[in-house]
Design brief:
The structure holds two protein chains of two kinds. Chain A is mainly alpha-helical. Chain A has a single domain, classed as ABC transporter involved in vitamin B12 uptake, BtuC. Chain A has twelve helices and four strands, in the order αααααβββααααβααα. Chain A has a two-stranded antiparallel ribbon. Chain A has a two-stranded antiparallel sheet with strand order 2-3. Chain A is globular. The two termini of chain A are about 25 Å apart. In chain B, about 75% of the residues lie in helices and about 5% in strands. Chain B has a domain of about 240 residues. In chain B, a hairpin with a 2-residue loop joins strand 2 and strand 3. Chain B is mainly alpha-helical. In chain B, the strands form two sheets. In chain B, strands 1-4 form a two-stranded antiparallel ribbon. A two-stranded antiparallel sheet of chain B has the order 2-3. The chains are: A mainly alpha, B mainly alpha. The interface between A and B is large, with 39 and 41 residues.
C-alpha cells in the first residue's frame, strides 16, 4: 500500500460510512437515519471525549467513566424533577423554558459529577499513578462502588426519564419526518465540541493540556504542577460524561444503574478509533460509529453492534494509533 | 553437579530439589484430599455445589493469572473464552439432536480451537500496538459476544439460555449404586470428572509457568524493554500466553456447563463474572496460580452466606429501609474491598503469605 493511499484510507472509510447506505435506503429514510445517527454520534462523543482526554493526559484507563455517566443521568433526572416541581418549566408550552430546565439539569449533573470525579481522582486514582495494572484494578473497583452507590441512593430499578414537553414529537421538514430531540442533541454536542476545541487550541490552559498529552514530564519541568491539571482534566472529563449521561437518558427516556456499562464499551471503541487523547478524533470516531450503527440497525437489525466491531478492527489494522494520533 | 550449568539452570535445579518441601506442596495435597472427600464429608448438595464451583473458578482464575500475573498484560474479556466453552457444550448437547460422549468431546475440542484462534487474532492485532489496547479490545469483544449470545435466539436460546441433558454415565438418572452411604449418581461422577480435569489443567499450568517459556513471560512482565533488548519478540510471547490461557478457560467453561447443565449469557460470559474473576485474582494474589483457589473460596463462600447476613440485618434493623438497602448491596463491599486490597495487599493472600515464609527462611537467626 502506498503511503498516500494509507493516509487517505481513513477518510475514504469515513465517507463510505456516510454515503454507501444511500444506495440501499430510500432518501427520506436516509435523512431520518442520518439525523438520529448524528445525534447518537454526538452523545457518544460526549462520553468518549472525556474518556479519551483522561487517557491521553493522565494515561489512566478510566473504567469508572461509565459509572460517572450513569451518575450524570441520575443527577440530571433528580434535578429535572425538582426544578419541574418548583417551576413547572418542564411541562410548560414555552420552548425557551423547556431548554432552560434541560440545561439547568445538565449543569447540575455536570457540577456534581465533576465534584465526584475530583473525589475519585484524589482518593482512588492518585495513589496509583504510573502503574497501568493497578490503575485498571482501582478504576474497576471505583466503577463497582459508584454503580452500587447509585443503587443505594436511588434504588435498583429502572426509572422513567422526564422529557421537556417541546422535545417530544417530530417535525415535518419537506416531507421528511425528523424527531425534535436529536436535532437539539446535535446542536448541543456541536457547541460543546467547539467550546472544548477552542479552549484546547486558543488558551494557555489548553496548550498546557495538549502538551501534557504529548509529554507530561516536560510540562512538569516547565514549572506547572501537573497533578493539579490531572485533577482538572479528570473533573472536566467527568463533567462531559455527566452531560452525556443526562442527554443520553433523555434520548432513550429511561435510566437504570447499569446503563454506564453498555456505553463504556462504545466509548472505548470510539476512543480507539479516533486516537486516544484526541478531541477531533473522538468526534469523527463517534459520528462514524453512530452513523454506521443506525444504518445497519435499519438494514440488518441484528448486525448493528457487529458493524461497530468491524469498524474497530479495520481502523486498527490500517491505523494502529487511531485516526488522529496527535493530541488535537 | 552444578558446575557447567548457567545460573538459570542452577536455579531451576535448586528449585526442583526443594519442590516437595514447600508449604504450598503440602497445602495442595491437603486441599486435593479435601476436595476428594467433600461429598462424603458434608453429604449436602449445596456445599458440594459451592466446593465444585470453587474448583472450576480456581482453574479459571489460575488461567487468568497466567495472563495477568505472569505475563503482566491486562485482559478484561477473559470470561469470553469461559463462555465459549459453556456455550459449545450447551449447543452440542441441546441443539444437534444427538447426545453422546463423542459430541461432548467434539464440543470441548471445537471450543478450545475457536478460543485459541480468536485469542491469537485479538492478541496479534492489539498487543502489537500497545498492551493497554489489549484490555480495551478484549472488553469490547466480550461485550460483543454477550450481546450476540442474547440476540441469536435460534442458536443460543437468547436470555433464557439452554438447559440440556448429558450422555451416559453423566446423566442425572444414571446410578452406579451406593458407596459409603452416598448415591453415586451421574452428578457425583460429574463432580469427580471435573475435579480430575481441573487438577490436570492446574498441573499443566504449573508446568507452563515454570517452563523456559514461562520464564520469558515473567521477564517480559518484570522488564519489557530489557526483554526486547535481549532479542525476544515480546508480543509473540504475550500472544502465546494469552492463547494458552484462553484454551484452558474454554475447558473450564465446558466443565462449568457440565456441572450446572444450563448456560445463559448472564451465568457464563457477562461483565459481573469478569468482575468476580478479577476480584478472585486480586484477593488470592497475582502471579501465584494457587491464589485462585483462595480467591475463589473466599468469594464463593462469602456469597453463599450473604443471604443469611442480609436476613440478620433486616431482622435487627426493621425500621431502616436505607440500612436494609445498604446490606443488600454486597457488591458495594466487594468493590471497597477490591480498592483496599489493591492499596494495602497488592500481592493478595498467597503473595503475602509467600513473602512471610521467604522472609522467615532468609532471616539470619
Amino acid at each position: 500500500m502506498t503511503p498516500s493511499l494509507k493516509r487517505w484510507l481513513p477518510t475514504c472509510i469515513g465517507v463510505a460510512v456516510f454515503l454507501l447506505p444511500i444506495l440501499l435506503i430510500s432518501p427520506k429514510t436516509y435523512v431520518t437515519l442520518t439525523i438520529s445517527g448524528l445525534a447518537m454520534g454526538m452523545l457518544l462523543f460526549l462520553v468518549s471525549s472525556g474518556f479519551s482526554l483522561i487517557f491521553g493526559f493522565l494515561s489512566v484507563l478510566n473504567l469508572a467513566h461509565g459509572a460517572l455517566f450513569a451518575w450524570g443521568a441520575y443527577i440530571g433526572f433528580t434535578a429535572f424533577n425538582w426544578i419541574n416541581k418548583w417551576t413547572g418549566w418542564g411541562v410548560s408550552d414555552s420552548f425557551v423554558l423547556n431548554i432552560a430546565i434541560f440545561l439547568l439539569a445538565l449543569i447540575a449533573a455536570a457540577f456534581f459529577v465533576a465534584l465526584l470525579g475530583i473525589i475519585t481522582e484524589r482518593i482512588v486514582i492518585r495513589p496509583v499513578y504510573g502503574s497501568h495494572l493497578f490503575q485498571i484494578f482501582i478504576t474497576v473497583g471505583a466503577m463497582i462502588v459508584l454503580e452500587e452507590m447509585i443503587r443505594v441512593v436511588w434504588g435498583p430499578d429502572d426509572e422513567v426519564m422526564p422529557v421537556p414537553l417541546n422535545f417530544i414529537g417530530s417535525l415535518d421538514l419537506f416531507d421528511v419526518v425528523v424527531a425534535k430531540y436529536p436535532l437539539i442533541a446535535i446542536a448541543l454536542g456541536l457547541i460543546i465540541y467547539i467550546v472544548i476545541y477552542l479552549i484546547l487550541k486558543k488558551t494557555k490552559l489548553g496548550m498546557i493540556v495538549r502538551a501534557g498529552v504529548e509529554n507530561p514530564e516536560m510540562v512538569q519541568v516547565m514549572g506547572h504542577n501537573i497533578y493539579r491539571y490531572f485533577t482538572g482534566v479528570f473533573a472536566v472529563g467527568s463533567a462531559l460524561a455527566a452531560i452525556g449521561g443526562g442527554m443520553w437518558a433523555t434520548f432513550v427516556k429511561s435510566i437504570n444503574p447499569g446503563m454506564g456499562g453498555e456505553v463504556i464499551v462504545f466509548a472505548l471503541i470510539v476512543a480507539i478509533i479516533g486516537g486516544l487523547g484526541s478531541m477531533t478524533g473522538s468526534v469523527v470516531g463517534a459520528l462514524m460509529v453512530g452513523l454506521s450503527y443506525n444504518y445497519v440497525a435499519y438494514l440488518i437489525p441484528k448486525a448493528a453492534l457487529g458493524i461497530t466491531m468491524i469498524l474497530l478492527v479495520v481502523i486498527l489494522l490500517i491505523r494502529p494509533t487511531g485516526l488522529f494520533p496527535e493530541g488535537t | 553437579m552444578t558446575e557447567g550449568l548457567n545460573p538459570v539452570q542452577q536455579f531451576r535445579l535448586k528449585e526442583r530439589e526443594g519442590r516437595f518441601k514447600t508449604p504450598f506442596f503440602f497445602l495442595g495435597i491437603l486441599l486435593l484430599a479435601f476436595f476428594i472427600a467433600t461429598p462424603f464429608l458434608f453429604r449436602s448438595f449445596e456445599i458440594t455445589d459451592v466446593v465444585l464451583k470453587i474448583i472450576i473458578f480456581a482453574a479459571l482464575v489460575a488461567s487468568y493469572d497466567i495472563i495477568l500475573g505472569y505475563t503482566g498484560i491486562v485482559s478484561l474479556g477473559h470470561v469470553l473464552y469461559f463462555g465459549i466453552g459453556c456455550y459449545f457444550v450447551g449447543i452440542f448437547m441441546a441443539k444437534l439432536g444427538w447426545v453422546s460422549y463423542g459430541h461432548l468431546a467434539l464440543a470441548f475440542f471445537i471450543a478450545v480451537m475457536i478460543s485459541g484462534i480468536l485469542s491469537v487474532l485479538i492478541g496479534f492485532f492489539s498487543l502489537r500496538i500497545r498492551a493497554i489496547f489489549f484490555a480495551m479490545i478484549t472488553l469490547a469483544f466480550m461485550e460483543f459476544a454477550f450481546i450476540l449470545a442474547s440476540q441469536l435466539r435460534f442458536i443460543t436460546g437468547g436470555d433464557d439460555g439452554i438447559s440440556f441433558k448429558l450422555p451416559g454415565i453423566l446423566s442425572l438418572d444414571y446410578s452406579l449404586g451406593r458407596f459409603l452411604g452416598i448415591d453415586f449418581t451421574g452428578r457425583m461422577i460429574g463432580y469427580y470428572l471435573i475435579l480430575l480435569i481441573c487438577l490436570i489443567l492446574f498441573l499443566l499450568m504449573l508446568r507452563f509457568v515454570n517452563s523456559p517459556l514461562g520464564r520469558v513471560l515473567q521477564s517480559i512482565r518484570d522488564n519489557e524493554q530489557r526483554s526486547i533488548a535481549i532479542g525476544y519478540k515480546t508480543y509473540i510471547y504475550q500472544v502465546i500466553a494469552s492463547t494458552f490461557a484462553s484454551c484452558v478457560a474454554a475447558i473450564t467453561g465446558g466443565c462449568f456447563a457440565i456441572w450446572v447443565r444450563y448456560v445463559s449469557p448472564d451465568s457464563s460470559l457477562s461483565v459481573p463474572i469478569m468482575l468476580d474473576v478479577l476480584l478472585m485474582v486480586i484477593v488470592g494474589g497475582m502471579g501465584t496460580l494457587y491464589g485462585g483457589i483462595f480467591g475463589a473460596s473466599f468469594l464463593m463462600v462469602t456469597r453463599a452466606f450473604l443471604p443469611k447476613i442480609q436476613g440478620l440485618v433486616a431482622s435487627l434493623l426493621p425500621g431502616f429501609p436505607f440500612a436494609i438497602r445498604l446490606s443488600e448491596r454486597w457488591l458495594l463491599y466487594f468493590g471497597l474491598l477490591f480498592i483496599l486490597i489493591v492499596y494495602f495487599f497488592p500481592k493478595g493472600i498467597v503473595g503475602t503469605a509467600q513473602d512471610i515464609f521467604s522472609r522467615r527462611r532468609n532471616s539470619p537467626h
